[in-house]
Amino acid sequence: MEFVTLNNGVKMPLEGFGVFQVPDPKVCEQAVLDAISSGYRLIDTAAAYMNEEAVGAAIRNSGVPREELFITTKLWVQDTSYEGAKKAFQTSLDKLGLDYLDLYLIHQSMNDYYGAWRAMEELYDEGKIHAIGVCNFFPERLTDLCLHSKITPMVNQVELHPFFQQGCAIKNMKELGVQPQAWGPFAEGQFGIFTHPTLTAIGEKYGKTAAQVALRWNVDRGVVVIPKSVKKERMEQNIDIWDFKLSDEDMAEIAKMDMGHSEIIDHYKPSTVKMINGLRIHD
Length: 283
Prior knowledge:
By secondary structure, the chain is an alpha/beta fold. The protein has a single domain (3-277), classed as NADP-dependent oxidoreductase domain (TIM Barrel). The protein is built from 11 helices and 10 strands. It has helices at 25-37, 52-61, 82-96, 113-125, 139-147, 167-176, 197-206, 210-220, 232-238, 248-255, 270-277; strands at 3-5, 11-13, 17-18, 42-44, 70-75, 103-106, 132-135, 155-159, 179-183, 224-225. The chain is globular, with a radius of gyration of 18 Å.
């Protein structure tokens, strides 16, 4: 495994394991245990995934020392305010059964995220979180937050895959000193990504699958990836990307796949904003 150093000096694995859409406690716990045994050390969950307890159980039962793991969870929109963030952070910490978080993220750029950021800055200063960041912050919102905050976000987790490459957004993040992290690195399985002819042809040169090429492509751009799977053989395949590197010609071919927009979610639509704000994870 390779690491990236965040803007505060914290080292973060360049690849992690995600548990989005794995709400069943037994399935989630076993998936995380399998991931850790396969070599993953970054585990990415969220309050809205409704599986923090299962992730915590896997951490305790993994046999791997806590300090060797990098645990991320996220603040949901419902709690995105100063007081809400303080309470939600402690709730997540209790559910995970941890004393601290390696990374805490604002899940969406909605509600009072400035108030929430102030709370997270305080939690960071108190040593309860080793790094703080955001998710789904487009360039204009990320820039504004950076300009009006004491602490610059360490990470911005956004949708990044060959069909939605967001080159300008990544350039902006790097200029601001914010580490890009990819959710949905397989485009949620859309567009035949696992058998796509461009990715498959490139993979054949290295003895790799289209999925491995898609992950390596993001890593070669300096992007942290968090693929997900409940199948151990797929987990092992997804982490087996550290013995090859794509050429400039490979990168140029993949660049042609960019659609320039998301087919998964459109955050610019008012209906999307209303839908996300309507998702409540507690009373």
